Amino acid sequence: MNTRMLQLGSLFPHFQLASKAPESVPSQSPKQLPTLPEVLQHVIKLTGLRREDVYNNLRIPDQFQAAKDDINIVILTGQGIFCIDVKPWKGTVSAHNKVWHVQVKEEDQNFTNTCVEQMDDPLKAVTTKTARLCSHLKRSGVAVRSSLFFPRVIFLSPDCWLDEELMKRRELVSHSQIDDFLKSFKAGYMAWITDAVTPSWISGHLSYRQMESVREVLRKVGTWDMVQLHCGEQLKGDYQGCQFIALDRQETDTLEFSRVKTLSADSLWALLGHIPQVTVKMYKRGSHSWLGKSLNATATIPSNTFVMFRISGEEFDAKIPANTIHSITLSV
User: Fold this and answer.
1) Average pLDDT estimate for 304-328
2) Which of 44, 128, 176, 268 could covalently link to 264 via disulfide, CB atoms 3.0 to 4.6 Å apart?
3) Which ranges carry the NERD domain (predicted)?
C-alpha cells in the first residue's frame, strides 16, 4: 500500500472547494473568499429554503458504488433538483474545445506578464455528476425525469470574468449574478409549494411525494469523513482504518481521541521505555440528544499508532499519528 507521512504544514482547510484556484493566480482581491459553510449559509438566507432541502458535498455513487467526486451543493425544490459546483477561480475564463483557459495578467511597474492555465471543463464535470445523481435516484426506486435536473457552476471571486460566449450560458453564474440567482429560488417558492401538492403529470414539476422520496435518498448519500486535529486543522477525505481500532461504520459516526493523563510528562515516560496511550471513544450513529451522545465502544491505543486517511485529492493514504488527532467524523 502506498502511504505518506502527514506533513502538518501542508494541511488544507476542512471545506476546501472541489477545485483549486490556478496556482499561478495572484491574490488580487483583499477580501478573502467565503468558505463552503459560509456559502451554504448565504444560500439558505437568500433562497428562503429549509435546511433539509440544501445539501453539500454529496458523493453520488455510480453503478459500481464508487464515488470519488462530490457535488458541492444540491438544492431540492418543486421546480427540480439543482446540482451546483462552486469555483474560486480568478482571472478571465474562456472555453477551448475540451479544456478551459484561465488567463491572468500580472502587472509590475515595468512590464505586464500574462499567464494562462488550462483547467478541466467544470460544466461538463458537474453535468456528469448530475446525470449520476439522476441514475442513483432511479436505482433507489425514485424516478425523476432528467429534465428536472439542473447543473450549475458558480464562480465566487469578483476577480473572475467569463468571456462573452460563456456569459451566454445560463448554467454558469458569475460573481455579480450570484445573489439574483439565489433570490430566484425565493421568488418562485410559493409556486413550488403549489407544485409540491399537484400531481407531477399536471404541473411538470416534482410532487410532494416525489420530493419526500428524494429527501430520503439524499439523506443516505455519503459525504466526506472529517479529521479534526489538535492543532486546529481539519481534513476531509476517507478514513481507511487503524490497526488497533475495529468499528462498524453503520453503527459509529464519531471517534474522539484523548490522551490518558499521567503523573509525568510523556517525554519522561518515553525515556523509561513507556509508550504514552491514547483513549479512543466511539459514539453510536444518530444517537445525539439532550443527554449527549451514546458511547458505542472504547479503545486504548499507543500514541504513536498511525491512522490511515486518504485526504481528498491525494493519490495515496496519509499516516496520521493518533496523538495529533482530536476527533474523526464518519459519513454514512
Assistant:
1) 92
2) 268
3) 52-151
